[in-house]
Design brief:
Layout lengths: L2 H11 L6 H7 L3 H7 L8 H22 L5 H11 L2 H10 L10 H5 L6 H19 L1 H13 L14 H11 L6 E8 L6 E8 L3 E7 L2 H20 L1
Antiparallel strand pairs: 1-2, 2-3
Helix pairs in contact: 2-8, 4-5, 4-8, 4-9, 6-8, 8-9, 10-11
Length: 234
């Protein structure tokens, strides 16, 4: 990894590594190590294992701190979403993590930079690298900012935060037509598509949003219309 690439990723992660070797190892897929006939300990699989545990702890701690009155079942559901492979893939994609991965030729040729599982695993490995390099606080800051996203668990992370349902209810309360959704565009290979979804409420309200699934794109578009209608109704 070139210095400029490492510096760009460090800026995105919000942490300058004292040991850049940890950063490189977190991005090293086993296919790269195999082709070099190097030690398996140089790939990111052990870091992924550690990062998974750190992620679970930090997310659990953040949810309990934010919502001490939530029952265990609700907390478990929120945590399951935040640590899921699909959510971690979205976080990794937003950081363009695939651009920095160190892959073997075969994995590179098979589209490894866009594979959901591979990206989610690399994100967990990066969390472990942050922890080993700087302690729990750099890892916690990264998880709170990028994985949890600073969202309020009482609203955005709860099942009630279904923006499509909320938009439908608001449109009905304002006596507006019901929202209509349409997939405007699909981009990318089958295993890593990006969807552009449009939502309309009557003639005056329209929003478009991108997502790594039709559902997430629709929710983002609905959230924007909901914000507009809320401002309009004040």
């Amino acid at each position: 990894m070139r210095d400029l690439e490492a510096e760009a990723l460090e800026a995105a992660l919000g942490h300058q590594f004292a040991s850049r070797e940890l950063l490189i190892r977190a991005l090293t897929h086993r296919s790269s190590v195999s082709e070099r006939s190097s030690s398996a300990s140089e790939d990111n699989e052990q870091l992924e294992f550690l990062g998974d545990a750190i992620l679970g702890f930090v997310v659990s701690d953040a949810l309990v701190s934010a919502q001490p009155d939530f029952p265990e079942g609700k907390l478990s559901k929120l945590k399951a979403h935040l640590v899921s492979a699909s959510h971690l893939h979205e976080v990794a994609a937003s950081l363009k993590l695939g651009d920095y991965l160190l892959l073997g030729r075969g994995e590179e040729m098979s589209g490894g930079r866009e594979k959901k599982a591979l990206l989610a695993n690399a994100l967990e490995a990066l969390i472990a690298a942050l922890y080993l390099d700087g302690g729990i606080e750099p890892a916690r800051r990264f998880i709170v900012q990028h994985v949890i996203g600073g969202a309020d668990p009482s609203s955005e992370l709860t099942p009630a935060a279904d923006y499509k349902s909320a938009l439908q209810e608001m449109a009905q309360s304002l006596k507006l037509p019901q929202p209509r959704y349409a997939i405007v565009e699909e981009r990318g290979p089958e295993h890593s598509k990006t969807f552009l979804v449009e939502v309309r409420v009557g003639r005056d309200w329209v929003s478009r949003a991108e997502g790594l699934s039709k559902k997430s794109a629709g929710q983002k578009a609905a959230q924007e219309i909901l914000r507009q209608l809320t401002d309009w109704g004040r």
